[in-house]
Amino acid sequence: MRIVKISLWILLGVFIIIQFIRPEKNISTDITQNDLIVSTKPAPEVEAILRSSCYDCHSNNTDYPWYSNIAPVSFWLNDHIEEGKEHLNFSIWEQYDNERKAHKMEEIAEEVEEGEMPLDSYTWIHGDARLTPEQVETLVNWAKGARTSYELAAQPQ
Q1: Which residue has the higher pLDDT, 5 or 26?
Q2: pLDDT tens by residue, 32-56
Q3: Quick one: which of 142, 140, 86, 95 has its CA closest to 113?
Q4: For the chain, which terminal residue's Cβ has fewer other Cβ atoms within 10 angstroms, N or C?
């Protein structure tokens, strides 16, 4: 019983100490011309879907919930956001060439159509990020149309 008590005190101490170690937050107030929404000006319904279901993990500006300040959740969220931005970062969209943009649009359409995005772990807590069948269709059609445009732009003249 004494070992259990000591172990619990040690765990509590570690928990308190890690609260002082904070990962850098993904917050940028700059929305530049490189941003997907600024550069492509999608329809308002597409923009709303992107902002509510994609931008927290796939841009340079995350809207953090209250629990993001509690370690170890803060570390998990930071890792999740960094990984999301590695795959696709809407804040640097205009830095991608047309071939890469076409490929990213293809991936967006596939991931959303197959229900892989947004992630379940995100939509459990962010209910507004859950996509209805109509929103899935809207986003997939937009991504497929954009993909075609970028493929045409990537072809040599």
Answers
A1: 5
A2: 788 999 988 999 999 999 999 999 9
A3: 140
A4: C
Q: How far apart are CA 33 and CA 31, in angstroms?
A: 7
Domain that holds residue 120: 2-154
**Concatenated DSSP letters of the chain:** -HHHHHHHHHHHHHHHHHTT--PPP-------TTSHHHHH---HHHHHHHHHHTTTTSSS-----GGGGSTTHHHHHHHHHHHHHHH--GGGGGGS-HHHHHHHHHHHHHHHHTT-SS-HHHHTT-GGGPPPHHHHHHHHHHHHHHHHHHHHHHS--
Number of domains, the chain: 1
